[in-house]
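JOB MANIFEST
job_type = single_chain_structure
chain_count = 1
residues = 763
[input]
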Amino acid sequence: MSLVTYSGFPRIGLKRELKRSLESHWRGDTSAEALLDTAAKLRRRHWQLAVDAGADVVPCNDFSLYDHVLDTAVLFDAIPARYRPVFDENHLDGYFAMARGHKRRGHDLHALEMTKWFDTNYHYLVPELEAGQRFALRGDKPLAEFREAQAQGHKARPVLLGPVSFLLLSKSIDGSDRLALLDDLVRVYVELLGQLADAGAEWVQLDEPCLVLDLDGDDHAAYHRAYKALAAARTPRLLLASYFGALGDNLELATSLPVDGLHIDLVRAPEQLDAVLDALPEGQVLSAGVVDGRNIWRSRPDRVSALLQKAHTRVGSERLWIAPSCSLLHVPIDLHAETTLDPSRLASMAFARQKLEELRVYADALSRIPEATAALTAQQLLLEAQSQAPGVVDATVRARLRTLGPQATLRRSAYATRHIVQSETLVLPPLPTTTIGSFPQTDTLRKTRAAHRVGQLDDASYDAVLEAEVERVVRFQEHIGLDVLVHGEPERNDMVEYFGEQLDGYLFTKLGWVQSYGSRCVKPPVIFGDIARPAPMTVRWSKYAQSLTDKPMKGMLTGPVTMLQWSFVRDDLPRETVCRQIALALRDEVHDLESAGIRLIQIDEPALREGLPLRRADWPSYLAWAVECFRITAGGVRDATQIHTHMCYSEFNDIIEAVAAMDADVISIETSRSRMELLDSFVRFRYPNGIGPGVYDIHSPRVPQSSEMLELLHKALDVLQPEQLWINPDCGLKTRGWPEVEQALQHMVTAARQLRAELKLAV
C-alpha cells in the first residue's frame, strides 16, 4: 500500500495556543519553560491528530516558535555578530532578538529583515551572511524533536530546509557570493545528518523549494556540489522536496541529484507528472503532492485519482508516497471545530486534518478497498452539485463584468495635472506626515467586538464605544501634529475579513487561523461565490472621523489583489475573474467615499508582489490583470481626490513598471528593516509620484529615537526629491500597544519637523 505522509503542520494550535504563550512570554508574564511546554504539547497533539487521520509517517522539526528559516540560521550558527551578546546571556532571548529586535539590558538591536515566503502569505526572517562566514551546529532541535516523536511511538521523518535553498533565500550583507559558503555549510549538514542517522532516522526530508524558481548555471552547479557531498557521507535516506510549482527546466537537475526520493507539487503543476515519471531514476520514491496544502477545498477525485493511478502504474505502491502539495502550515487545523457554518458549505471544505483523511482514502482506493472508492465517487458528485448551489453564481455581477470596458481603468487626468490640483485643494505642508491606517486594537476593543458579535452588546452601545475610540485616535493625531489623519479602524477585526463580511460571495470560519509570522495569525475569509457589495462598507466611519477635525482624513480600503491573495479563493473560476469582481465592488466604495467628502483614499495592496508567479515568464499576464484590477478600483475619481496605496515587504526591482502603472498618487512602502535599500528601484526607474518610505519598523516592539528616523529620512532624500517625500511608519499599528505607538509617532513628527527646519521648508 502507498504510504501517506505530509511535510509540515500548522504550528499555532486550534485556538492559537502558541500565539498566546509567545505573547505572554514576551510580556514577561510566563517563563521560558512554560512557553517550551506549550510548544511540546502542541507537537504531540498534532502528531497524534495526523496519525488518527491516517498518516503513516509524521514530519518533525517542522514546528517553530517563530519561523523555520530563522530556526535554520540559528541551528547552523548563522547569527550576525550584533545578536551574539544576547545569545550569550540567554539563547531564547537571542532567538527572539533576531525575530523582533531587542531593547533592554544595554542592547538596542534591529530585527532581521522579513519578507514573503515565495508567493504565500507567510513571512520568513531573512538570514544575513557575509564572506568567509563559518557554520557550526548550535543546539540539537531536529534531533530532539525526532526523539520526541519516537518517544510518542510515531514513525517520524525530520524535515530540514535544504542547504542550497537556505543560501539562496539569505541575504549577503557585504555583496559577496552566498553560494561561496556552500561547502562549509554542507559540512555541517553532514554532521547533523550523521547524528540523525545514529538516532535511527530512516529518512530525512530536505526542502529545496528554490527548485521551482528560475535558476542559473551557478545555482545548478551548487545543487550538484551539495548533493554529491551529502551522498558521499553517511546519512539517512534523503527525500528532496520541491513545492509551489513545476520543476520545469530544473527537472533534469532534480532527477540527477543522488537522493532517494523526490516530492513534487501536482496541485499547482499537475502537467509535470509525465515528465517526472519519465526522468525519475529507477528505485527512487515519488512523493506525489496531490491535495492542496494552500487552500481549503476538498480535492476533486476525478483529477487526483487519474494522477495517482498513472503514478501507481509506473512506480508501484512501495515507491509511491501520497502527500499534500506542500506543508499544511498554510491552512487551518480542523474543520470539525466549525460548528456554525452551513453544513452544505462545510461539505466541500477541508482543513489540515481533513486533507490527511482525504489522502488516506486515496491510498485505500489505490489498494482497491471498495469503501474508499465509494467515498471518492460520493465526493465527486457532491462537488459537482456545489458548483450550482445558491449564492455561487450572481448573474448581475457576471453581466457587469462582461460590459466592463477599458475606460473603467482610467483616471480623469495624468499625474502631473492631478498633483497640481491636489496641492491646491489639500494644502499640505512639505514632507507631510501620516500613518498607514490602523491604530492599536486594545483588549477593550476586542472584548467589545466579541460581546457585540454574540449579542451581549446592542448596536447602539457598540457604536458608542467605537465612536469614542475614533475620537480618541483623531485627537491624539491632532495633538502630536500629524498632517493627514486616519480614523484608526477600531471597527475592523482584520483588513480583509472586515470587508469580506460585508460582501456577497464570502463566508467566515470561527477557528480558521493561519500563521502570517511569529505570533501574528490571520483568519482568511473564504470566497465561495460571485462577489457583490450590497451596501457601503466604510463610509459611515470615515465620514464620522472627518466631522471631528479640519485636517484631511484618509479613507482606508483593502485593494482587490490583496483581498484575493489573503482569502481562500474558490477553485472553479480563474483568479483574475474573481479579482475583477472584487475590484468592481471596491470601485463603488471608492466613489461613495469621494461623494461623502473624503479627499484622500488609500487602497492597500501589500499582497500585489506576493501574487507574482514564481517563474518570470508568467509575470506579464499576472501583472496585467493585477494592475488592471487596482485601476478599476480607483478609476474615474476626480483629479482632486488623492489615491494612496501601501505595499509592505516587497522587492520592487522586478515590478517597478507595474507599480508605476497602478498610477496611485502616493505609495507608502516598508523600508526601515532594509535601511531604505528598497528605495533603490524607485530611483533607478525615476518614479515620479509621491513616496512614503517607512521610517520605523512596526513589527518590532522597539521604539526608535527621532534621530534614527531622521537618519533614514536623510537617506531617502539622497535619492528622492523633497516634494515626493511623505513620512510614515512601515505599516499599520494594529498589533502594537498604545504606549509605544505614542512614543514612536511623536518621535516621527519630531524628525519631520527637524528635517523641514534643516531644509528651510516653509510650513
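[summary]
The mean pLDDT is 94.
The longest strand covers residues 285-291.
exit_status = 0
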